Amino acid sequence: MTINDIAKIAGVSVATVSRVMNKKGYVREETRKKVEAIIRDHGYHPNAVARSLISSHSSLIAVIMAERPFSFSSKVLETIESCAGEQGDSVLFYGTGAEQERELRAFSQAFEHQVKGILLLPVMESGEAAVNMIREAEAREIPVVLLDWDLYGEDFDRVVVDNKQVLYDGTRLLLEEGHRKIGVITCREVAKEGSRRRDGYLQCMKDHQIPLKDSYIYDGDFDEESGYDACRTFFALPDPPTAVLACCSSATLGCFHYFKEQNMELGKDVGLVGFDDISLVESMGYPVTTLDRLSREMGRNACSLLYQSMRNGADHKKIVLATRTIRRGSEHMGRCFSLETKG
Q1: What separation in angstroms does the CA of 128 have from each of 44, 157, 341, 343?
Q2: Is the distance from CB of 157 to CB of 305 less than 8 angstroms?
Q3: Helix axes 295-312, 70-86, angle to 10 degrees
Q4: Distance set, CA 286 to CA 173, 229, 261, 264, 281 (Å)
Q5: What is the pLDDT of residues 155-179, one digit of tens each?
Q6: How big is the CA angle at 256 (ends 240 and 242), to the nearest 5 degrees?
Q7: How far is Cα 71 from Cα 94, in angstroms, rounded to an integer?
Q8: What are phi and psi of 193, to 5 degrees?
């Protein structure tokens, strides 16, 4: 019998069982009695050495962050460092790229450093192994908060945006501008089927009774090449879209490079709505309308949730953040564009 077994039988998280065992943190009285009864009935006795080890933590917060567009991850990390500093803590950063093995190794090293909390932006392929590491962290009384990750039905603290709604809003904005032929560049996502960014595009087109074209949907990735190649594909079509909706900032940059290369003027020759606010493009004098998921707000909320869990061990929470649309004119219909008329 292990602490994980107790948690499964009780139908609660490992962290809740740990709080009951250590008589620390808030647990509903009904839940506490249920867990205590299971522990008593199964004769469970936690290892004293292990218990002493998990009760001693440093003043470090671990940030385990997978590869994401720089415009997003840099703002999240900067905000976390600021919030942790206000609490007198330092940040131990682990960049895991896109490798699950590096992510698991980061967890192990964070445990060795006896961090007091973990903020996790998982790799795309994170699966049961990552879930098990989160459970192990909670068993060690190390709270974990997930950022931008809403794939599994597990009961974990997390801060996310409504990805489907964001792209629904972006599609609706283009429709309101008069566009009916809208190309979308999707990206890999860590969200449940039916709640992904591309689902927002599909739903909005359906709600407005706009026929869908498979040729207007390009499956991309978190890189500029996806945006560039998508636009090259779209505008080689006999009937190209009049606007493009990019689902990540890197793809947005790729779109921008393609349009600049083709001398296509945003908001006149073609409409463009991007994802995440991209200061680089605006600083170059090319304002792009963007769907901004408020990266700093995500970092701030994640940190707040982490410290809340440290203080009182409240039940797991899911925070869904609002987003904002920053209109700069690139969404406009403008004149009809054709590569042939451009020469």
Answers
A1: 26, 17, 54, 54
A2: yes
A3: 40
A4: 19, 20, 13, 12, 6
A5: 789 999 888 899 999 999 999 999 9
A6: 25
A7: 18
A8: -55, 130
Q: Are 234 and 272 in contact (CB under 8 A)?
A: no
DSSP 8-class letter at 236: T
Q: Which of 65, 62, 72 is nearest to 99 (CA)?
A: 65
Q: Does the pTM of the predicted model rise above 0.85?
A: no
Q: For strand 289-292 and strand 324-326, is the pairing parallel, antiparallel, or unpaired?
A: antiparallel
In which order are the strands placed within the sheet that holds 117-121? 90-97, 60-66, 117-121, 144-147, 157-161, 318-321
What angle in degrees, to the nearest 10, is found between the helix axes of 3-10 and 128-139?
100
> Within a 13 Å sphere around the CA of 222, how many CA atoms are in the beta-carbon half?
16
* Phi, psi (degrees; rounded to nearest 5) at 321: -85, 150
271-322 pLDDT per residue, tens: 999 988 776 566 666 789 999 888 899 999 999 999 998 887 667 888 999 8
Nearest partner of 121 among 166, 185, 69, judged by Cα = 69
Closest to 341 measured CA to CA, from 243, 235, 182: 235
CB 308 within 8 A of CB 269: no
Domains of the chain: 1-56 (1.10.260.40), 163-293+326-342 (3.40.50.2300)
Q: Which amino acid is at 272?
A: L
Burial of 343 (0-12, 13-18, 19+ CB in 10 A): exposed
Nearest to 76 by CA among 229, 67, 271: 67
- Nearest-angstrom CA–CA distance, 264 and 271: 10
Strands 117-121, 60-66: pairing kind: parallel
- Give the highest mean pLDDT range of 87-96, 148-157, 183-192: 87-96
Q: CA triplet 289, 77, 59: central angle to 5 degrees?
A: 160
Residue 148 DSSP one-character state? S
